[in-house]
Every structure is written in structure tokens, then in C-alpha cells.
Design brief:
It is a single chain. The protein is α/β, with parallel strands linked by helices. The chain contains 11 helices and 14 strands. The chain has 2 domains: 217 residues, P-loop containing nucleotide triphosphate hydrolases (Rossmann fold, 3-Layer(aba) Sandwich); 50 residues, no CATH class. The longest helix has 14 residues.
Length: 291
């Protein structure tokens, strides 16, 4: 079990996170918040790249800072941007990382071929990385994070650059891997976690707002989400009165998904809320967010 206990992180006089309490067991956890909310700071503390100003992070009851290399030996990490040698092939790069992680040559070769097949790069494993697309590079990053068969796998914005087909492959891979390990997936893209996360963690105003299964979080908006057809000349008034979650032109009118916390109009259709609806509702006061 991985436990974050009363963790606060400050940089000088600026507090990024305050009094964070979290528990992680086997499964997938979606760490969901807009950019700038402290996700990456928390990730860096979980990977010992940063240390808390106050509080502690425990793995099986031991402070991860004290565990040192023994903790990093069971940790897999994919940062938002990872360094790689563009003149190496995918196979050469993974063998290099495996050597840095202390794997024997025999195990390294076996794991490298297995993981490149698993992320769909087996047929191009001897191709130079400089010829890979952004999505292919990201899959190499996922493979390198898995080389030591980690018990704790932390992925920071792992689907950046992946096309829809690659996203499906990624979700299936994470679901398979989560059977016997902790996986923490940090993102601001709701669809990345909605289909696979056992629990969602939402951070706002430096603190944990929720750590619950998706079904429980979406109950926050039960009975408040509607889809309505609005004439074009009334759409501005609707935007002023309600939080709109989505809009599209259809049939000579605007089809609008919105939140109504008071009595709705009779012709409005109530719909089940999704995680993206909650995300937009919770972070509506944080300008520039992208769901």
C-alpha cells in the first residue's frame, strides 16, 4: 500500500499542495485536475524527485525517502517528457535503460522484446527512434517504465500524442497491468481515465477534493444535467444563466448540454452525468481549462 499522509509542499512562500491524504492499493487511479493544480508536483513527490515540506509518503509502512533505491527498484515512471537518444533503435534504447536499472543482459533482452510487442512496436523495434511518430515515442516511454516489472507505476500525461486507436491500445494495456500493481495516471484529459480508473482523485485549491469511484463522483450532479434544443437567438441568454457543458448545431438550432440546479423547463431532457460534466462543473472557475 502507498500512503500520502498530511503532505504539504511549498516552494518558498508559495504553497502548491496542503494537507494531502491519499491511499493507493492495487488498481488504476486517475489523478485529474487542470494544468497548474499541483498534479505534477504530487507525482514528483511520489517518485522521490521532490520531497514534502511537511508530512510523509509511506510504502508498506516505510517512508519512501528512507527506502531510497529499494523503493525506486519497484517504481516505474513515465514523465510528461522523457529523454531518449534519437539515433538508437527502440530495442537499443530499452536495453540501455535496462542496464541502468541493473537488469541482467538475458533478462533485459527478454523483457525488451516482450514489452515492445506488448505496446505494439515489435515489428519496428530495430527502427531508429528519430523516425518514430510522437505516439510511437510515447509507447516506448511506457515500455521503459515497465522494464523492472514495477509494483508502483506512475504515468504523467501518458497519452499525449496518441491517436484514438493508440489510446484504446493504451487503455487495454493499463487494465491488464493493473491486476497486481498500483497504477497512478495523471492527466487533465477526462476520457483517458473514465473507462479504466478504479478511483478518481480530484485536486482543487491545493487540496484533495475527492478520492472516489467514478460512479460516486458523478452522483454529485445527479438530476442536474440536461440536454436542450435552443434557438440561435436564445443561446447567449442560456450561456448567461447556466453552465453549458457542450454545444452543437443540429436541425436549425443549438443542442446544448447544461447544468440546471433549479427547476428545469418542461421540455428539457434529463440525462445521466458523466465524469467530464463533473470536471467542468468543479473547475468552472479556473479559466482556460481543457477537459
Amino acid at each position: 500500500m502507498l500512503i500520502v499522509k498530511e503532505v504539504t509542499k511549498r516552494f518558498g512562500s508559495f504553497t502548491v499542495l496542503e494537507g494531502i491524504n491519499l491511499e493507493f492499493r492495487r488498481g488504476v487511479y486517475g489523478l485529474l485536475a487542470p494544468n497548474g493544480a499541483g498534479k505534477t508536483t504530487l507525482i514528483k513527490m511520489l517518485t522521490t524527485l521532490l520531497f514534502p515540506t511537511m508530512g510523509e509518503i509511506l510504502y508498506d509502512g516505510e517512508n519512501i525517502g528512507h527506502l531510497g533505491e529499494s523503493y525506486r527498484g519497484i517504481l516505474g515512471y513515465l514523465p510528461q517528457e522523457f529523454g531518449y537518444y534519437k539515433h538508437y533503435s527502440a530495442r537499443q534504447f530499452l536495453l540501455y535503460i535496462a542496464a541502468l536499472k541493473g537488469l541482467s543482459p538475458t533478462v533485459a533482452r527478454e523483457k525488451t522484446d516482450q514489452l515492445l510487442d506488448q505496446v505494439g512496436l515489435g515489428e519496428v523495434k530495430d527502427k531508429k527512434l528519430k523516425k518514430f511518430s510522437g505516439g510511437m515515442i510515447q509507447r516506448v516511454g511506457i515500455a521503459q517504465a515497465m522494464l523492472n516489472d514495477p509494483q508502483v507505476l506512475i504515468l504523467d500525461e501518458p497519452t499525449a500524442g496518441l491517436d484514438p486507436k493508440e489510446r484504446v491500445r493504451f487503455r487495454n494495456l493499463i487494465t491488464d497491468l493493473a491486476r497486481d500493481r498500483i497504477i497512478i495516471l495523471s492527466t487533465h484529459i477526462v476520457s483517458d481515465v473514465e473507462a479504466i480508473a478504479n478511483e478518481i482523485i480530484m485536486i482543487k485549491d491545493r487540496q484533495v477534493l475527492y478520492q472516489h469511484p467514478i460512479e460516486e463522483i458523478t452522483r454529485l450532479l445527479a438530476g442536474k444535467v440536461y440536454e436542450v434544443s435552443v434557438p440561435f437567438d436564445e443561446i447567449e441568454e442560456i450561456r448567461k444563466q447556466y453552465l453549458t457543458l457542450g454545444e452543437k448545431q443540429e436541425g436549425g438550432a443549438m443542442q446544448v448540454r447544461l447544468i440546471c440546479e433549479e427547476k428545469p423547463q418542461n421540455h428539457w431532457k434529463q440525462v445521466n452525468p458523466g465524469l467530464e460534466d463533473v470536471f467542468l462543473y468543479v473547475y468552472q472557475d479556473q479559466g482556460g481549462l481543457m477537459p
